[in-house]
Amino acid sequence: MANVLIQVNIGRDENKSGVLLENLEELIDACEKCSSVKVKGLMTILPKVDDELTRKYFAEMKNLYDCLSKKRYNNVLMEYLSMGMTSDYKIAVLEGANVIRVGEGIFGKRSYNNF
Predict the structure, then answer these.
(1) pTM attached to this predicted model
(2) Where are the beta strands (DSSP E) in 1-115?
(3) Starting from the edge strand earliest in sequence, which strands make up the sheet with 76-83, in order?
(4) In the beta sheet, which residues pair with residue 99?
(5) Are 85 and 102 in contact (CB under 8 A)?
(6) Is 22 helix (H, G, I), strand (E, B) or coil?
(7) Does residue 107 fall inside a structural domain?
(8) Which of 27, 100, 105, 115 could form a disulfide with 89 if both were Cys (CB 3.0 to 4.6 A apart)?
(9) What is the span of the domain harbouring residue 76?
């Protein structure tokens, strides 16, 4: 069984992956039919925007997470809400994230060497 998070493209950024909000329910329905996948929550990676818009997107994700948490599914459980990275994790935590990604804050900027 693969435990997964569904990535939601809440900022509708064409440079980011993830399901668009209007297609999320269809994806959840498809996941319900997969016996080898267990959806454990949601995640998002925002486009680079100001703090006000960051907070708005994170609040939308938390609202979505809370709404889905109230529904009963066979293999979808809203346990994790992953949002926020090194630059915006404080806002993410204030808006309800229970998983954050702060790799750059720990390890520094990535080095993309051409091999």
Answers:
(1) 0.89
(2) 2-7, 37-44, 76-83
(3) 2-7, 37-44, 76-83
(4) 82
(5) yes
(6) helix
(7) no
(8) 100
(9) 2-98
Calculated CA dihedral for residues 28, 20, 18, 52, nearest 10 degrees: -120
Quick one: tokens of 97? Answer: 């994230």
**What is the spatial distance between Cα 78 and Cα 67, in angstroms, rounded to a whole number?**
10
Question: What is the spatial distance between Cα 46 and Cα 9, in angstroms, rounded to a whole number?
Answer: 8
Cα gap 73→43, rounded to integer Å? 18
Average pLDDT of the chain to the nearest whole number: 93
CATH at 77: 3.20.20.10
The kind and range of the H/E element at 65 are helix 51-69
CA pair distance 23, 11, nearest whole angstrom: 14
Task: Classify residue 77: in a domain, yes or no.
Answer: yes
Question: How many beta carbons lie within 10 A of that of residue 110, not counting itself?
Answer: 8
Split into its structural domains, the chain has a count of 1
pLDDT in tens, 59-101: 999 999 999 999 999 889 999 999 999 899 999 999 999 999 9
Q: Kindly tell me the sign of the dihedral angle through the C-alpha atoms of 24, 67, 99, 89.
A: positive
